[in-house]
Amino acid sequence: MASAASSAAAPFWRAAGMTYITYSNICASLVRSCLKEPHKTDALSREKVHFSVSKWAGGKPEKPSTIFSLSFSLSRDDFCC
Amino acid sequence: MQRILSRAASAGGRLRRCTAAFSTDAPAVATEDSAFVEAWRKVAPNIDPPKTPLAFMKPRPPTPSSIPTKLTVNFVLPYKSELANKEVDMVIVPATTGQMGVLPGHVATIAELKPGLLSVHEGSDVTKYFVSSGFAFIHANSVADIVAVEAVPLDNIDSSQVQKGLADFTQKLSSASSDLEKAEAQIGVDVHSALNAALTG
Predict the structure, then answer these.
(1) Could you give the CA distance from residue B107 to residue B70 in angstroms, rounded to a whole number?
(2) Whole-model pTM?
(3) Residue B201 scores a pLDDT above 80
(4) pLDDT tens, B123-152?
(5) What's the domain range around B39?
(6) CB within 8 A of B154, min separation 6: which ones?
(7) B20 and B118 in one domain?
(8) By the 8 A CB rule, do A68 and A79 touch?
(9) Do A32 and B182 touch (CB under 8 A)?
(10) Is residue B125, in this structure, part of any structural domain at all?
(11) What range(s) does the ATP synthase F1 complex delta/epsilon subunit N-terminal domain occupy (chain B) (predicted)?
C-alpha cells in the first residue's frame, strides 16, 4: 500500500486528495459523455443516483425533507465518497 | 435458531481460515454445510434442510498441473455481465503499467486498469471494448476476472465528442489553479486521449 512504502509515488489524483472511487466515477462519466445516441441516453440514465434524506426523531423517521436525484458531475465537493 | 446460524457462519469461516496464499489453493469442494444439516435433521427430520449460501457457491476450479489451453474470462460491469466463463485464447488488458497480454498459465496478478482498450482474442475473432477503469484479477488456475465501471464497444463512441472533450480539457489543464482542478483536468485529458488512441489505433 502507498502508505507502507512512503517512497512509492502516489498517482496524481491521490496526491491531489481524490479517492479512487471519485477518480473511477469521473472516468466513467467522461466515457459516457462521449457515446453516440441512443447509447448515450441509456448510459446517462444509468448514472443517476436517487436517494432521499430524512431525519429521525423519537425512533421514527420524519417525512423526507428532500428527495434528491444526483447525477455525477465534476468539482462537486459536497458529496461523500 | 441463532445457534444454527452461527454454526453455519463458522463452518464457512473454517474454509477461509485455512491460510491459503491464493484463493485457488483453498479446498475446491462445493459442500452443503454438514453441521447445519445434522442439526436441522434433529429438529425437523421430515423437512428437507434448506441450502445455506455455502451450498450455492460453485467450487473454484483447482490449479491444474499443466498449463491449460484456454483462459476463462469473466468480464463484469456494475449493471451487466459482459462475458461469463468464456473460454478464450488471450485477453489484452489496459493496465496502469501498460497493455498487458494475458495467456493461459499467466502468473497470478492483480492489475489496476487505466482508461484504454481491452481486447478479447478467440481464434481469429477479436472483440474490443473501451474500458473506463477497473481491475483485472488473474488467478493461478487461468481464470481472469475483469471488473470495470464502464466498458463500451468502439462503435458506440462518437469521435467528434472525443476531439471536443480533448480540446476542452487540454485548455482546462493549462488554466487550472487548484490541485483538484488540475487533477480533474488531467483525468479528462487522459481519458479523451485514450479514447482517441483507441478510435484511431
Answers:
(1) 14
(2) 0.70
(3) no
(4) 888 999 999 999 999 998 889 999 999 999
(5) 26-59
(6) B117, B128, B129, B130, B198, B199
(7) yes
(8) no
(9) no
(10) yes
(11) 71-143
Query: Is there a single domain that holds both residue B119 and residue B141?
Result: yes
Say if residues B32 and B105 touch (Cβ distance below 8 Å): no
Does residue B111 surpass a pLDDT of 90? yes
User: Which three cell numbers, joined as nine digits, stand for B84?
Assistant: 461469463
Q: Are residues B109 and B18 part of one domain?
A: yes
- Written as nine digits, the cell of B126 is 477479436
Both B18 and B96 in one domain: the answer is yes
Region of residue B98 (left: phi > 0; alpha: psi -120 to 50; beta: else): left
Note the maximum CA span of chain B: 75
Cβ of residue A5 closer than 8 Å to a chain B Cβ: no
Cis previous bond, A38, omega within 30: yes
Question: Do B99 and B129 fall into the same domain?
Answer: yes
* C-beta atoms of A27 and B115 within 8 A: yes
Nearest alpha-carbon partner for B194 in B164, B166, B173, B170: B166
The reply to whether B99 falls in a domain is yes
In a domain, B39, yes or no: yes
Q: What is the ipTM of this complex?
A: 0.71
| B72 and B18 inside one domain | yes
A10 interface with B at CB cutoff 8 Å: no
Instruction: For residue B190, count other CB atoms closer than 10 A to its CB.
Output: 18
Number of domains in chain B: 3
Indicate which CATH number applies to the domain containing B103: 2.60.15.10
Same domain, B88 and B141: yes
Q: Is A2 on the interface with B (CB under 8 A)?
A: no
Question: Which residues from chain A sit within 8 angstroms of residue B191, using beta carbons?
Answer: 27, 30-31
Window A:46-75, CB contacts with B under 8 Å: 46, 74-75
* Residues in contact with B113: Cβ distance below 8 Å, sequence separation at least 6, in sequence order: B93, B94, B95, B96, B131, B133, B134, B135, B136, B146, B148
